[in-house]
Amino acid sequence: MMYQDIFDNTNDTSVVDFSKKSYLLKTIKRRFLTYGYRQIQTSTLEQYDLYQSITGTVHPDKMIKVIDPSGKILVLRPDVTIPITRMLASLNQVQSPEQPLFYISEVFRHSSDQQAKNEQTQAGIENFGPSTVELDAEVIALAIHTLRDLGFDSFKLEIGQASFFRELLELLNLTKAEKSELQLLIQAKNISEINRLLGDLTIQDELSTFIQQVPFLYGNFMEVINRAEEIALNEQMKDKLKKLKKLYEILQFYEVENDVSLDLGLINHMDYYSDIIFQGFVENVGKPVLMGGRYDQLADQLNATIPAIGFAFDVDFLVEAMDQHNLFPEVKTDIDIVLLYEKTRQRDAIKSASMLRYQGYRVYTEQLTAKECNPPASTSLVRYENDQQLLEHVNRSTSFTDQNDLLRLIRQREEDV
Fold first, then answer.
1. Where found (predicted)?
2. What is the CATH architecture of 15-325?
C-alpha cells in the first residue's frame, strides 16, 4: 500500500504554470541581456562550511542538509549571492573589470509555513563593479525596466540605507538582543512597542527622539531626505543622505523617479548588505516580488575585496502576482495536429507525422484500436484508415492524396481561418 504523502508535492508545476513561468523568465532574461549581463550557474550542492563561515546569511535551521559518501555535510543551495561571490573570489577576479552577471536558479530553504514551498526559483543579477552611486542607479533602473517589461504599470521600489540605520545602532550601544528587537519593531513600524523598548533603555533624549521618528521616515523620496537632514545626528548620516540625493538625481535621467520611494526604516534580514537596499512591491500584492542591495564587504569574508550590488526576483511569487494582474498572454496548450491511424496504415502515418514535425507543427500520433481513443485537443485531426485518409479541420472533412496534398490543405485551412 502506498502512502498518500508520496503524492503530495507542492513543488510540482503544471503544464499551464510552466508555460507562464517560461514566458516570465524569457522576458526577464531578455531585459538582463540588454544591460550587458551574462548568465552564470552555480552548483546545486554547496559546502555547509561556506555558509557557516559567512555572517549575516541564511539561518542554519532553514538550510536543507545532506551528507555525501565521505561524511561531509552539504546543503542544497539556500542562497545564490554567496556562491557567486565565492566563485569570483576563488577565481581571483579582484582586479578584473566590471562583472555584470545574472542567474536563474533554484534555492532551497525550510519554512515554518507548512503551505510554503521549500524550493523556489530566483532570477537575479549580481554586479561586481565599482561601488558608485551611478552603478546603484543603473541596477535600480534595470529592476524597474524589468517590472515594466512584465506588464506592471503600478508598482513601487522602496529604497533604504542599511548603513544609515547601522550608524544609529552604533550610537545606541545596545546588546545584540536589544538591537535585534529594535530592528524588528522599526521594520514593523510598531510605534507603541518602540516607545516601550526605549523606556526600558538608558539612552540620551536626543537619540530616543530620533529613533521614534525613524519609522515615519518613508514616502516621497526628496521629502524624506529633507526631513532626515533636519534631524541627522552626525556627519556620517549626512553623507548617506547626500548619496541618496545624488542617486535620486540619476534615477531622474532614467525617467524612473516616479517608481521609487524612500524608507529609512527599511531593514533586510540578510546582514551582509552594507549600503543601499531595496525591495519592489506591485499593487494589491502584500509581499515584495524582488529584494536586493549593495554588499561591499561580503567578499572580505572570503579573503577578497570585491564590491558588489545585486537583486533577485522571487519567480514563483511573481507568477502569482502576474496572474492576479492578468498579465500573461493566453497560454496555448492545444497541439496543432492529432494523427490517428489503423495498424495497416502505420508506415504512412509515421512518415506524415515526421514531415509535419519537420515543418514545425506539434503532432500527436496514436494507433486506432478497439479501445476508445482519447487524444488531446488539437486544431486539426488527420485520420489514416484502411480505405481512406482524411483531414478534419473546423468541422470540415477533406480527403487527401499524399503528404504534399495534406500539407497544402493544412496551410490552406490556416489561411481561411
1. Cytoplasm
2. 2-Layer Sandwich (3.30)
Q: What is the pLDDT of residues 291-337, one digit of tens each?
A: 999 999 888 888 888 899 999 999 998 999 999 999 998 777 678 99
| Environment class of 328 (CB within 10 Å of its CB; exposed 0-12, middle 13-18, buried 19+) | middle
Which of 3.30.70.270, 3.40.50.2000, 3.40.50.800, 3.20.20.210 would CATH assign to domain 337-415? 3.40.50.800
Q: What secondary structure, in 3-state letters, does 248-265 show?
A: HHHHHHCCCHHHEEEECC
Q: What is the rounded distance in angstroms from the CA atom of residue 216 to the CA atom of residue 196? A: 17
Query: Annotated binding residues for L-histidine, as ranges?
Result: 79-81, 109, 122, 126, 272-273
User: Binding site residues, as ranges?
Assistant: 79-81, 109, 122, 126, 272-273
> How far is the CA of 413 from the CAs of 99, 152, 362, 405, in angstroms?
51, 37, 16, 12
